[in-house]
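2024-03-11 09:14:02 DEBUG pipeline.ingest accepted 1 chain
2024-03-11 09:14:02 DEBUG pipeline.ingest length=1064
2024-03-11 09:14:03 DEBUG pipeline.predict start
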Amino acid sequence: MSGTMLRSLFLFGSMSALAAQSTGRISGAVVDSAEAAIPGAIVSCVNTGTGTSHEVVTGDDGIFRFPELPIGQYRLTVTKEGFQRLTRGEVELLTGHMVELKLHMSVGSVAETIDVKGDVPLVQTVSSEVKTTMDSRAMSELPLNGRNPLELVVLTPGADFTSLGTSPGQQDNTGVVVNGLRSTDNNFQLDGAGFNNPMYASAPTLPNPDTLGEFTVQSSNFSARESRAGAVVQLSTRSGTNRFSGAFFNFLRNDKLDARNFFAQQVSEFKRNQGGASVGGPILRNRLFFFGSYQVTVKRGSPSPKLLTVPTPAMREGVFPAVRTIYDPAANRQPFPANTIPRSRFDAPLQKLMPFMPLPNNGPTIAELPREDDQNDHQILGKIDYQYGSGNALSVRYYYDLNDIQRDTTSVRDTFSLNSYRNQSLTVRDTRTVKSVFTLNNSVSYSRTFRRQVPQAPIYTNVLASGVVPANERTLPELRVNLANYFNFFSGGPLQFYPSFWEIRNQTAWSRGAHLIAFGADIYRSREDAIDNSFGSGIWSFSMLRTQNAAGLGGDTFASFLLGLPATFQQTSSDLARLIENRYQLWFQDDWRIRPRLTLNLGLRWEPALPAHDVLGPLTGFTPGMQSTVAPNAPRGLIFSGDVRDSIYPADWNNVAPRIGFAWDLTGSGKSVIRAGYGIYYRAVPLAVQRIVGTNGTFRTQDITVNEPPSFAEPWNGYPGGNPFPYHTPNRDEMRNWRFRLPVFAQALDPNTRTSYTQSWNFTVERQVLSDASVSAAYIGNRSIKIISGVEGNPAVFRAGATAANIDSRRIYPGLASVRLSTPWQWANYHSMQISVTKRTRRGLSTVSNYVFSKAIDIGTGGTIGGFNWQARDPFNWSIDKAVSDTDVTHRVNVALLYDLPVLVRGSKLGGAAINGWQLNGILTAQTGYPFDITAGNRALTGGNSANADIVGDPVRPAGADPVVQYFNTAAFVLPPLGTHGTLGRNVLRGPGKVNFNFSTFKNFPASERYTLQFRFEAFNFFNHANFDLPNGGVGGVNFGRIMAAADPRVLQFGLKLLFGGAR
């Protein structure tokens, strides 16, 4: 099918979006006292906040449906000749919820009215999907660290943060996993439109809690309306109503109030201020409404320091402890006398870095430094809602976030990068109701993210590497010197990214008898403009290899550093890219009430995968033995766009995703239900993978790694052909006759790439046990295959005399150096038991709690760009990495609680002001630890990932040993022989568990009927529990087995909010 035909098919009819992401459904049946259906009854539904109304007529079976209603409070009225008028009020509709009601009418005059009150049913009886919803009260009143709504996402059963210290909401904030799937699988939506950075498949900075009304996380078996394999996080911004309401707020943190981090010698410098306002109201009553908000965040420092492994003063003088013998590479690898390197052998240029290298101040080999973590963030949101006619609405929302971050690294002081992020999102949505049975939802959205990173390394000018010249004219001064098992000099590289995203989504909902039929079409257009010069000044990596003996024993990274002998040197010219990707998708969904107590959910989604193309030049692929015709001088195996087709890998047209499930109301009371479902969900290849892999190396960029260069200052000495920089990127006319420098390093896409997909299933039993509480137990599982990740496509064969320096000469494909191949080779399984307890607010108390027992198994776990930064340990045998996933957590408990203390003093204004109006809130999270590896560096000498250690004893920590200093028995692990991958399997050991309790208390001072002053006290990590990071797992490091970091200590925050118009 041609692209023109596809576009014509999708544009036939209205351009529209699934409004269900910021709406919900109210449906049910109208019956008489004998439970007989009442056909022809008129059911009207009025939003009590905006006054807008919708109207339907019950069918022959008495069923009525309002398939797409804006979230809010509703009042229902039912009229039918011969029956008394029935009104049902206080129906709260949350994002994505399906409220099912049974309305009983009594015989009588229509002039008589019966008012019915009651709670909205707790148990969902019409859908098989698994979801968790947090309302506006939880959003604004639970103690969220940093006021980050992602803190609520991880209260979902099966969800977890998997990374610490990331920049919230930015490209590296992909540490939220749900049900064992990749963090880049999640689909964030804001007001019904996609809210994802297309480059990294993650969410930009989320709006603050005073801007968001609520959110729903669909974690398993969602309908055919939704794409992607992970959770669907549906966020809704607030809207104006007929009443002016809003808040002014300010939150303050100061290190004078904080506790000391477990590893710090004193409280770390830290200050944070957040202030802003939100307001909404009518422009024209019952028709036109507005909402707007602004928040500014200013942060300086961090509650926790960074701890670096550093050499002792004696080691800085060349004197090394006897536990590791240092061998002289210039004396046939004989030991240095007295294990001491003479100062005359110290590398002169690197000595200029010594004054910037911190001395140990927190133990013999640990330096404690403050984090240079500063942030200025500005958020602005504006929204207009227009109601016209019955059931018709138009909404326009614009969101802007400017986030400037001084990004700290695991490096010495004065080496950091300045990052500027600018996120923008615009959504226009139109909803129309036609003849009470059709609902058409139309929306167009556009989002754009800009990121600029500028290295800040004042000490760069003090280092003279005379043999290194800038890679090209875009190179900025930066510093990258890595010392394995120690620390880094790292400033980050200069780069600019401009990903943008257009989205048109279509839905038509049709209520017909026992069926609620929905169908639609989605169009996505992603574009990524990138200028990446991260390695333009070069990166030196030191390891113990250069000071080991011929058997690979002894040695020390810092000894190699003193001698100026890097293990590798890498330099890269700019990566320029402009990738464009189009996606066209169709879907159909039928929620069929086959019996009064049984609903089937049947859906089908078609998601053909069309590869991206780069308008600035061809992408790179790898097919061993094939000769390119686009670039005939390229080594065999390297192919380019145009050799076989316009893209590297073909379009995948057979991506058909069935969705099937049922919901069975066991007794008909709506209190007990069994739900089950199965579905297939596809995941696209992130644009970042296609750019990094498809454009790096070959001739688009010159990317060369020198193994064991002769010196720090002259890494290109002896390189065939001399220094290859500065580099000129050839244009299309020059490509055909381009002469490649051999061996060629390449990052390449696999021409056999097919779309990865996940099979997901669940079986859930839920019971309403009290009028305000329900309990559910679920088995949730999934299996993912064809997950794209990185492997070494041109590994080296180990043989006698193999060293790191001769890896390229031992590779299986001549003319090529490392070929980092992106290929769909990984798989993953997940199984879990999830128990949840939900209690809606009654007598001031509400809670959402859950317990999860789970296991996630895979053959490699992804990272910030969908797993590409992970490589197989053995490029010849991928299966040795089968193990529990890096993100596997066996047990996890979440408890979120809000409690309004009862009124204790009545009749006394003074006593009431002091005693009444208090509120207590808390979030408790407890979980077991993550698995981790014991690594041994590049021992296999094949060009693959780091080897694991050999296990030679019992890894259990010796009795009486301090678990912080020695978390496991370090004597049980040794370096494996050269040419091997270690006898220890992947992820055999488990790190420490985590327990955290965030607490807040509020005091409300009603200034009048309209205004309330709210004082807040919040404590994050209230009990100051030390949540330790994983221990150092690098064999041979001076801090091997030691825990080097802990999460933030207790941090206090004070806040003041002026609320008006009933806002919370």
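2024-03-11 09:14:41 DEBUG pipeline.report The chain has a mean pLDDT of 88.
2024-03-11 09:14:41 DEBUG pipeline.predict end
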